[in-house]
TrEMBL record:
This is Chromosome partitioning protein ParA. CDD domains: ParAB_family. Involved in chromosome partition. Localize to both poles of the predivisional cell following completion of DNA replication. It comes from Paramagnetospirillum caucaseum. Residues 10-184 form the AAA domain.
Amino acid sequence: MAEPSRSSARVIAVANQKGGVGKTTTAINLATAMAATKKTVLIIDLDPQGNASTGLGIDRGAREVNSYHVMLGEAALADAVIATNIPGLSVVPSGVDLSGAEIELVEFERREHRLKESLAGSLAAYDYVLIDCPPSLNLLTLNALVAANAVMVPLQCEFFALEGVSHLIKTIERVRQAFNPGLELQGIILTMFDKRNNLSDQVAADVREYFGDKVYKTVIPRNVRVSEAPSHGKPVLLYDMKCTGSEAYINLASEVLKRERELLRA
Ligand SMILES: Nc1ncnc2c1ncn2[C@@H]1O[C@H](COP(=O)(O)OP(=O)(O)O)[C@@H](O)[C@H]1O
Ligand SMILES: [Mg+2]
């Protein structure tokens, strides 16, 4: 049976206002695993820290045209796209200037729609666009949520995880009402799961009870190979394809793609 397909990219924002929960790691490795199944994928690095760009091996010198210029309307999105070493995977890198974009954008009309409008002409070129959000619910994240069809929320298995996410869920609800009625919660991915820690189990159980089947069956384990990979400028899938972290991201990608196929058929 032929796979159903979309004529334009599905845009997924990877968001959580908490730092260090695995947003960037998830964006990079989910995108890599999707590209490995012959999908054409674009990552937009919307964090001034540029960790997604670094983790994909993009030199600082190659980031002259970046998501800052796209957000400010100084460059077309297509002119900021850089190919990575992974076939089918490209990235719009970020630059440090992006940290000032929030203040500069205040003067613009429709400032929440900047990213959506700059993406419009490029959507046909990709199957998936993943937006790596900064650790804040600022105007950059708001732009990502307005541009996106769906949000994926990485959640670290730690105390207070649920309290933090309820704030994000309220923000998603407000974005739906004000700007983007079609915005879906793609899913919640439990990250940095430590099987020796009872708290991880307890948090995972609580999150599943609260969010039901919105939580992926796949859980990303805490795995030192995952944390080593970015310093080599590689997704963990390329750094060590056989480690538990890589396996988990491959499973996550197949779960996400399965959900996407079900949505297309529905
Ligand atoms: N599954 C994991 N196992 C071990 N370390 C991880 C894992 N996921 C992420 N990390 C590490 O934790 C830190 C925070 O992850 P990151 O993806 O950058 O989070 P965020 O983008 O939400 O700030 C990084 O140093 C990253 O390498
Ligand atoms: Mg990050």
